Amino acid sequence: MRIAVAGGTGLIGTMVAEIALAAGHQVVVLARGRGVDLVVGDGLTAALHGVDAVIDVTNVTTLSAKRSTTFFAAETANLLAAEKIAGVSHHLVLSIVGVDRAPYGYTPASTRRSGWSRSARCRGRSCAPPSSTRWP
Ligand SMILES: NC(=O)c1ccc[n+]([C@@H]2O[C@H](COP(=O)([O-])OP(=O)(O)OC[C@H]3O[C@@H](n4cnc5c(N)ncnc54)[C@H](OP(=O)(O)O)[C@@H]3O)[C@@H](O)[C@H]2O)c1
């Protein structure tokens, strides 16, 4: 399978990419450090050419509700739109355990990102928002 790891240079994304490679998958890393800005969205459809699944483990370092909402809304919308054009069939986004019970700062935007990924925007694809506790 060809898997795009959005945020594949981050803490979680690096591990996800390594595990996918070790399991024999092809991995495409989407991150600004690899020339792809998901908030801007330029070149995203081309980057997703031939990709079967996207794993979204991007993040923005902020406690601001406004900044995190702006970031997650833009990167999710751009990813889902580009996936639809590129024919990607699976979309997975990592959430945080209990995040929906902590409605402060960054967390409402993180919760909404999971909702967007289950919404009509994801129609026709298999979309899933598993959750993890914090990593050390
Ligand atoms: N860390 C944990 O313990 C934990 C636990 C549960 C859930 N999660 C969730 O997992 C996700 C990842 O967390 P993390 O700690 O691994 O984050 P992180 O280390 O801060 O990594 C963030 C990743 O997002 C990329 N990124 C940021 N802005 C971008 C943009 N505009 N366009 C493209 N890529 C962008 C970064 O790469 P560039 O800077 O190169 O763009 C980096 O690869 C988050 O949604 C978080 O809520 C994390």
Question: What's the arrangement of secondary structure elements?
Answer:
Blueprint: E1 2-6, H1 11-22, E2 26-30, H2 44-47, E3 53-56, H3 65-86, E4 90-93, E5 95-96, H4 107-118, E6 126-128, E7 131-132
Parallel strand pairs: 1-2, 1-3, 3-4, 4-6, 5-7
Helix pairs in contact: 3-4
Bound molecules: NADP nicotinamide-adenine-dinucleotide phosphate.
NADP nicotinamide-adenine-dinucleotide phosphate (NAP) binds next to helix 1.
Could you characterize what this model shows?
This protein is of the alpha/beta class and 136 residues long. It contains 4 helices and 7 strands, in the order βαβαβαββαββ. It has helices spanning 11-22, 44-47, 65-86, 107-118, and strands at 2-6, 26-30, 53-56, 90-93, 95-96, 126-128, 131-132. The strands form 2 sheets. Strands 2-1-3-4-6 form a 5-stranded parallel beta sheet, with helices on both faces. Strands 5-7 form a two-stranded parallel sheet. The protein is globular. The mean pLDDT is 89. NADP nicotinamide-adenine-dinucleotide phosphate (NAP) is lined by residues 7-13, 30-33, 36-39, 57-61, 94, 96, 110, 132, 134-135. NADP nicotinamide-adenine-dinucleotide phosphate (NAP) binds next to helix 1.
List how many beta strands DSSP finds: 7
Dominant shape: globular
Cα gyration radius (Å): 14 Å
CATH topology: Rossmann fold
Low-confidence stretches: none
The CATH H-level homologous superfamily: NAD(P)-binding Rossmann-like Domain
Order of helices and strands: EHEHEHEEHEE
